[in-house]
Amino acid sequence: MRTPILKECLLTGLDITMQRADSKYISITGLKFLEINNLPTFLILKKSLLTGHVNKFEKDIYSKMSKQIRNRAGSRLPIDANQLGISF
């Protein structure tokens, strides 16, 4: 039996196989999936990404979180899963 090939977010290391095939980072789809299937990890990620500041462009938490992930990817500021206490 073959083990499924996991596709991981390049920044967080989280499984993103539920997203589009060309995804590099966890997106809104992956964040919603994570919230339903692994709430503790979602809450840790949420705490590390959201600042509490109002943003006029991104209205919901998923948009804000995915934007922060893209920003960190662009600025090459990784999210250390070990530091966050996320176990995969």
Short characterization:
With 88 residues, this protein is an all-alpha fold.
Keywords:
88 residues
How does this model look, in words?
The two termini are 22 Å apart. The model has no long low-confidence stretch (mean pLDDT 82). By secondary structure, the chain is mainly alpha-helical. The chain is built from four helices and no strands. The radius of gyration is 13 Å and the shape is globular.
Structural topology:
Elements: H1 28-37, H2 39-49, H3 61-75, H4 81-84
Helix pairs in contact: 1-2
- The count of helical stretches stands at 4
Mean of residue pLDDT values: 82
Instruction: Please state the overall shape, judged from the principal axes of the Cα atoms.
Output: globular
Counting helices, strands and paired strands, the structural category is: mainly alpha
